[in-house]
């Protein structure tokens, strides 16, 4: 029997390099919501912090059911008066820094639902013409072409969001890819977004681990969060799955994870999934106040 040769120092150093690469491949990104608080600074300033890879403009909170869709961006601009077109240069500034900018549909307040497959197709065409690569004489955010659409569906019927996702993703064939993201609540499966998510068309899924007592972090206990994270990462096909967290205790009713707990206890658990993409922070206003993203960024 031939004796096993000892591995050479060269092989050992290659092996260590590979292990180091495998460890760093789990480095994640930070996504944030911007648009609901006037005092959170501009979109361009948000991107200039260098903290974020994705910014969701929140929200297009009226759409579907044959309504004329409308934006609500707090006091940042007046959609009805057409002053939100000033955001075009901010969006382009973000994109020039490599930050993807998406428009978030839905939110906690507003009037939205998709009454039929045809209604979903109409909303898809509207989003394409008004915010994406299509064209229209009146674009609410001006000429900038957004990177994609975020589904933050929290009310109404779950019907036809799968049709909307398919229709939006088909526009990718006309040029620039249309990224799709979703912000489901942490109880799995999500009652508003499950059918859409099962299309497997979503690039990023940032799960809201807050305001959901059965699965968010509570009183030093990460068991419920950990069980839910496993259900999501095994149940949903998406390029990257993100842990959505409040930026401070004021940002949500429950689920706040102190930065040291996030980095020492929670991230080591969620990073065991190859689908881990990073964290989503709700929202820029509270993040600016708390410095949460800056504090945890090197561990994300
Ligand atoms: C975990 O979730 C269950 C409901 O599924 C709840 O009763 C329990 O209080 C939660 N645990 C913690 C520590 O929040
Ligand atoms: C925010 O956190 C970063 C990283 O820990 C730190 O360098 C910076 O000074 C903090 N900023 C404020 C305003 O506390």
UniProtKB/TrEMBL annotation:
Record's subcellular location: Secreted
Q: Which GO terms describe its cellular component?
A: extracellular region
Sample GO molecular function, one term:
endochitinase activity
Q: Which domain of life is it from?
A: Eukaryota
Top enzyme class: hydrolase
EC number(s) on file: 3.2.1.14
The reaction(s) catalysed by this protein are: Random endo-hydrolysis of N-acetyl-beta-D-glucosaminide (1->4)-beta-linkages in chitin and chitodextrins
- Indicate the secretion signal residues: 1-27
Domain GH18 per the UniProt entry, residue ranges: 28-300
The alphabetized UniProt keywords are: Carbohydrate metabolism, Chitin degradation, Disulfide bond, Glycosidase, Hydrolase, Polysaccharide degradation, Secreted, Signal
Q: Name one Pfam family in it.
A: Glyco_hydro_18
* GO biological process terms held by the UniProt record: chitin catabolic process; polysaccharide catabolic process
Q: Which family does it belong to?
A: Belongs to the glycosyl hydrolase 18 family. Chitinase class II subfamily.
Q: Which PANTHER family match?
A: ACIDIC ENDOCHITINASE, ENDOCHITINASE
- Name the UniProt record assigns to this protein: chitinase
Q: Which organism is it from?
A: Phoenix dactylifera (Date palm)
């Amino acid at each position: 029997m031939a004796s096993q040769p000892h591995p050479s120092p060269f092989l050992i150093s290659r092996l260590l390099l590979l292990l180091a690469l495998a460890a760093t491949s789990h480095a994640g990104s930070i996504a944030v919501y911007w648009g609901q608080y006037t005092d959170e600074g501009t979109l361009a300033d948000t991107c200039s912090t260098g903290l974020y890879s994705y910014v969701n403009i929140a929200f297009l909170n009226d759409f579907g059911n044959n309504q004329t869709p409308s934006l609500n961006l707090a006091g940042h601009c007046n959609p009805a008066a057409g002053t939100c077109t000033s955001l075009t240069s901010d969006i382009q500034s973000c994109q020039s820094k490599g930050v993807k900018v998406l428009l978030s549909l839905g939110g906690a307040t507003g009037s939205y639902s998709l009454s039929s497959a045809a209604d979903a197709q109409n909303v898809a065409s509207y989003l394409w013409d008004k915010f994406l690569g299509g064209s229209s004489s009146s674009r609410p955010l001006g000429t900038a072409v957004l990177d994609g659409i975020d589904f933050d569906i929290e009310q109404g019927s779950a019907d036809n969001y799968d049709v909307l996702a398919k229709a939006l993703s088909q526009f990718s064939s006309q040029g620039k890819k249309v990224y799709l993201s979703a912000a489901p609540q942490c109880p799995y499966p999500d009652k508003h977004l499950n059918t859409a998510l099962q299309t497997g068309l979503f690039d990023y899924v940032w799960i809201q681990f807050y305001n959901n007592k059965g699965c968010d972090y509570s009183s030093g206990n990460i068991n419920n969060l950990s069980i839910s994270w496993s259900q999501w990462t095994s149940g949903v096909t998406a390029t990257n799955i993100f842990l959505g967290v409040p930026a401070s205790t004021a940002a949500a009713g429950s689920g706040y994870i102190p930065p040291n707990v996030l980095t020492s206890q929670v991230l080591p658990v969620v990073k065991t999934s190859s689908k881990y993409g990073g964290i989503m922070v709700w929202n820029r206003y509270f993040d600016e106040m708390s410095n949460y993203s800056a504090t945890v960024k090197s561990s994300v």
